[in-house]
Amino acid sequence: MTQKLVRHILDTIGELFPDAHCELRHSNPFELTIAVLLSAQCTDETVNKVTLDLFQKYKRPEDYLAVPLEELEQDIRRIGLFRNKASNIQKLCRLLLDKFDGEIPEKHEHLVELPGVGRKTANVVVSNAFGVPAIAVDTHVERVSKRLGLAGIDDSVLEVEKKLMKKVPREEWTQTHHRLIFFGRYHCKAQNPKCEVCPLLDHCREGKKRMKPSSTRKTITNK
């Protein structure tokens, strides 16, 4: 893929979603970390509904440790894998107090030490909370990148991230991350992508496959 085509793809998605942003509601790095941890295999919409009350009840790491695990589980029971996530939240809070003075660390290598925080979560936190350019590859970013040829169809999540980092200017990493998510969430959906109105159809392997049967039927009908 040429750099010119990469630029065209980025600019086109940027025109569609110029104001793409992190949709997880938070007011500080600690809340963002908890929200991203909860968002694994769960929609941002559901997480925001849960954290609306959660962040009123729990303000600091100490607050999460002051209640029994069972109580925290009940507070987030609408979230998928809530038991495991509740356990990780309390372990994370304990480590924050023991090792980081109760504050979310700014360095990526320290963030991934926290229970429940993987590479993707750490990328989201450093980019949104601390302004460090990063590309977090979630299911939307992975799907869109592979469909548009920005990454190989069999690439791992890490390989997708590395290829995007190589092709996208560093100062655009965070912005591109958000725009790819919006493009995947609201346009290039997993099950019902809007191929028929997509300005990038000519560059999309999946789109061409999906539109081909439609075109064939139309040709037969016209005959």
UniProtKB/TrEMBL annotation:
Residue span(s) of domain HhH-GPD: 38-186
The protein's required cofactors: [4Fe-4S] cluster
GO molecular function, one term: metal ion binding
GO biological process, one term: base-excision repair, AP site formation
Keyword Nucleotide-binding: no
Superkingdom assignment: Bacteria
Binding site for [4Fe-4S] cluster: 188, 195, 198, 204
Keywords, sorted A to Z: 4Fe-4S, DNA damage, DNA repair, DNA-binding, Endonuclease, Glycosidase, Hydrolase, Iron, Iron-sulfur, Lyase, Metal-binding, Nuclease
EC identifiers of the protein: 4.2.99.18
Enzymatic class: lyase
Catalysed conversion reaction: 2'-deoxyribonucleotide-(2'-deoxyribose 5'-phosphate)-2'-deoxyribonucleotide-DNA = a 3'-end 2'-deoxyribonucleotide-(2,3-dehydro-2,3-deoxyribose 5'-phosphate)-DNA + a 5'-end 5'-phospho-2'-deoxyribonucleoside-DNA + H(+)
Database matches in Gene3D superfamilies: Helix-hairpin-Helix base-excision DNA repair enzymes (C-terminal), Hypothetical protein, domain 2
Record's keyword annotation contains Iron-sulfur: yes
CDD domains documented for this protein: ENDO3c
HAMAP family referenced in this protein's UniProt entry, alphabetically: Nth
Protein family (similarity comment): Belongs to the Nth/MutY family.
Protein task: DNA repair enzyme that has both DNA N-glycosylase activity and AP-lyase activity. The DNA N-glycosylase activity releases various damaged pyrimidines from DNA by cleaving the N-glycosidic bond, leaving an AP (apurinic/apyrimidinic) site. The AP-lyase activity cleaves the phosphodiester bond 3' to the AP site by a beta-elimination, leaving a 3'-terminal unsaturated sugar and a product with a terminal 5'-phosphate.
Record protein name field: Endonuclease III
Organism (species): Paenibacillus silvestris
